[in-house]
Input
Amino acid sequence: MKIAIITDQHFGCRKNSELFHDYFLKFYNDIFFPTIEEEGIKTIIDMGDTFDSRKGIDFAALAWSKDNYYDRLAKMGCEVHTIVGNHTAYYKNTNDINAVDLLLREYDNVKVYSDPTEIKVDNLDVLLVPWICKENKDETFDKIKKSQSKVCMGHLELNGFRVNQQITMDHGIDGDVFNKFERVFSGHYHTKSDNGNIFYLGNPYEIYWTDIEDVRGFNIFDTETLEHIPVINPYRMFYRIYYNDNDHQTFDTRPYKDKIVKVVVRKKTSTKKFEKFIDKLYASNVAELKVVENFDFAGWFDKEDSTAFESEDTMSILNKYIDESDISLDKSVVKKMLDEVYREACEMI
Output
């Protein structure tokens, strides 16, 4: 039997951005729903962070989620197993009050798990592990110890795995706790990473600049072979263009419609030609356009670093600065704090 695994959908992200929801919808319309229909999939496992904000949701975002996702799954006769992630738990020390339970009670086909629970999918026993917090920590580790399931699926914060393209988590729970399982799948980190037994499957689409050119999508899981097959989302939101005196007349700007674009200037001999190039990008209806042209950053990086530096996003620059600094604090903790601040700042835009 084949089922679908999806995680970290973050409905309502970026302050319920219509731009991002339209981008999400293209993935669901063109990739997700056609694939599960073609494969005859009737079971979906959602590994957490279905909604973006633990404190509340915009009514328009909720309506969008129901109209474009949950109503469609209900009509298709799909059963959805949803675990609570850190973004859907209202409090940080308990999962009892959570968005997926409160917002989706009208759907008989949606089952929500706020505590570690063993379920049977086809003939396979699966242990579902929601976000591990102070209240459920002891119960969770006891369930893991006693579980006879071959497979575990959760929303886990394990060390040694990539948080994104720039950061590898060096604190959190030791993955050895899950060695007893033949396969472990997790959400929480948005980029793909694995150690051969534990698989972070990544979220379906780009949400931040740190996601640029990183593989996104969802997975089809075979309950008999325990193998998972990635289904790649080909659509992107973020693009980086390197300007080297490009001829604006021959440059195709159509792929950048409704996208967030950064132009990195490497060579500009004519200001007039450059302005025509930028004007053509604007005329193609880019959603957001930034130009990076000045690389004098008070000696943070030497000239040899400038080529790499010009293409990096904000978090890459900050993380590099932390790595090269002499601060006495735990650098991984500082990076995590800055990542959280960066994401909150993005929500303010």
